Amino acid sequence: MKKGFVSSLYPTTKALIIVLGLFLYFFFDWRFAYFFVLPFCAFLALIDGKIVGYLQKVVIALAVFVLFIFLFKVILEQNATPVLLDLGFVKVTEAAILGGLNQTGILIVLVATIILFFETTEMEDLMISLQELKMSHVVSYIVLSTIQLIPDMTKKSKVIMQAQQARGIETQGSVMRRLKAFFPSLGPLIISSIADIEDRSITLEVRGFSSENKKTHLKEIRKGNLDLIVVVVLLVSAAGAIIAKVML
After folding, report:
1. Which residues contact 6 (CB under 8 A, 6 or more apart)?
2. How confident is the model at residue 207 (pLDDT cuts 50, 70, 90)?
3. Is residue 161 part of a domain?
């Protein structure tokens, strides 16, 4: 299957987007995060063919945190002026909105860039690129397994719930009914995870993971001319944005 434009880039090239996004944010304000970084990352996901999955993850990641921060700022800024909306039990002020936007700006940058990175990067490629940077294969494996932990646990949980449902246990309906079906599934989930750890450790030892000899990979990834062009464009654009900000 042919990779999209962003997916075909070397992992460290895509990681540069995260670094530059965070670096530039400190030269600008919340408008840079909301009106440039987020639309830019969404555009990259669109041309890569990953827009649906990307937006779903971004919305889920931001909904709770952004809403919580905004509510927190609204409650704290009750005595500020001007008041934009008076609901009686709470007042929405301009200071609260601006404070919420400023505090969520860095969160927008992190969520938008990091989700784009993992949405367009295969974990195998990330592990290989980390080892190309002379990182220990043990450290790179720990990073990879940590990243994959939540998705793996989610998949196992779905399989266990489907097995419970096949046995006649009701797993759908009200929140209480779902909780009653969920807690009994924790035992099989934990036991299967422990068994997977043992199987994985045996597999790693069989493959000589603990050996200090130089490791080889069945799959090879290399930086191409496109990576060089993207890096130059990103760095020049970032430098131009900083110079424009300082001069104006």
Report:
1. 14, 44, 45, 47, 48, 50, 116, 120
2. low
3. yes
Q: How far apart are CA 102 and CA 98, in angstroms?
A: 6
Coil vs helix vs strand at 86: strand
DSSP SS3 for 93: strand
Domain range for 19: 11-121+221-247
Domain count, the chain: 2
Identify the weakest region by mean pLDDT among 14-23, 64-73, 170-179, 229-238.
170-179
Q: What is the DSSP letter of 36?
A: I
0.90 exceeded by pTM: no
Tokens 């779903």 identify what position? 56
Q: What is the pLDDT of residues 67-89, one digit of tens each?
A: 787 777 777 776 666 776 666 66
N-terminal to C-terminal alpha carbon distance within the chain:
47
On whether the CB atoms of residues 219 and 124 are closer than 8 A, the answer is yes
pLDDT digits (tens, 9 = 90+) for 162-187: 777 777 766 666 667 666 666 667 77
Q: Return d(Cα 44, Cα 61) in angstroms, integer.
A: 18
User: Do both 22 and 109 map to the same domain?
Assistant: yes
Residue 83 pairs with which residues in a beta bridge? Answer: 93
